[in-house]
Design goal:
331 residues; binds 6-O-phosphono-alpha-D-fructofuranose; alpha+beta
Length: 331
């Protein structure tokens, strides 16, 4: 893997890293550049949401039974619009759409399937909290033609070829892996370009920070509660951080270390977070950064979704802590 100095543009990084893959058709680079373009557009709108009448809900509910925020719709349309006419994807899956999105026939030669949560945490936007876009990419099924067959997206996480997120916070950062390390690019809005700012992000050793919604802990597996009670022992020096926005919580843990937990609860017995376009992308990133991600019984990336909106429990972060939680749950 070539080394890049801070300040390298995303475009140069993509061109130079995919040049090492002569089989790449160029579609891969185009796909990721279109994602970056959509991220710039969403970032600009998020930053002005309060001024552009983009706060609040639309009044409608999505497939998840959640009230759709105005920004959810904008982000969904922006990422779909950036990809469906680029000739790089044959199908897309979005948290905001009940069924997979099939691109117009004349563009269906695309080699990839794009799965996304266009704007995760958007219920936080009215409070100016960190939110983000999460995505992963699969190659199209050789057998399938990506037409009308949702099962083309129901693949093991081990078949992911790229994944990332764009975090819209104090700044806008695109964090990306194509299987060779995890790299972060910060948007300079004055020139509209992403520049390498976090080269080869590696998760530290066992860190002492956990991230969860403790209001639900009475509904957790007692063995998990016992683990949490243990780490609260003052001499261990643990701290807690929770934004309630998956991308914000995950990005902090990736950059500073920590473990994020969203266990099953009475209301969400199979977990709240979505496997295909939330847990998969973050699990791909965390494993490429030396960490781990589990549903409490198996590695997230070893799972195969039974449906495109399937939910999962999620324990993700530095490897030592995730493995300790899994051991605790095994009793
Ligand atoms: P809770 C946001 O609604 C979200 O889907 C994730 O971004 C976040 O991690 C989680 O839900 C927060 O859920 O139950 O703690 O509000």
């Amino acid at each position: 893997m070539a080394q890049f100095e801070e300040g390298t543009t995303l475009d140069r990084f993509l061109l130079e890293t995919t040049r090492e893959h002569p089989e790449a058709s160029g579609q891969f680079v185009t796909l990721l550049k279109q994602v970056a373009l959509a991220g710039k557009l969403v970032s600009a709108r998020v930053n002005r949401a309060g001024l552009a009448g983009m706060f609040g809900a639309t009044g409608s509910m999505n497939i998840q039974g959640e009230y759709v925020q105005k920004m959810d719709l904008y982000a969904n349309e922006t990422f779909k619009g950036a990809l469906e006419h680029a000739g790089v994807v044959c199908m897309m899956v979005s948290e905001e759409e009940e069924a997979p999105i099939f691109v117009p026939d004349r563009f269906r030669h695309g080699n990839y399937i794009f799965c996304m949560d266009p704007l995760d945490g958007s219920s936080n936007i009215d409070t100016n909290a960190t939110i983000g876009t999460i995505f992963c990419v699969f190659r199209r099924c050789s057998g399938g033609d990506g037409r009308g067959d949702p099962s083309d997206a129901l693949r093991s996480g081990r078949e992911i070829v790229a994944a990332g997120y764009i975090v819209y916070g104090a700044g806008t950062v695109l964090v990306l892996s194509t299987g060779e390390g995890v790299h972060g690019f910060t948007l300079d809005p004055t020139v509209g370009e992403f520049f390498l700012s976090h080269s080869d992000i590696r998760l530290g050793e066992k860190t002492r920070s956990y991230s969860c919604n403790e209001a639900y802990s009475a509904q957790w597996d007692p063995r998990l509660r016992a683990w949490l009670d243990k780490v609260k022992e003052p001499s261990l020096g643990w701290s807690a951080r929770y934004i309630g926005s998956l991308v914000g919580d995950f990005h902090r843990n990736l950059v500073k270390g920590g473990v994020f937990l969203y266990p099953p609860t009475a209301k969400t017995p199979n977990g709240k977070l979505r496997l295909l376009y939330e847990a998969f992308p973050l699990a791909y990133l965390v494993e490429n950064a030396g960490g781990a991600a589990s549903d409490g019984t198996m590695a997230i990336l070893d799972k195969v979704p039974g449906s495109i909106h399937e939910r999962t429990a999620l324990f993700i972060g530095d490897r030592d802590n995730v493995e300790e939680i899994v051991r605790a749950l095994r009793g």
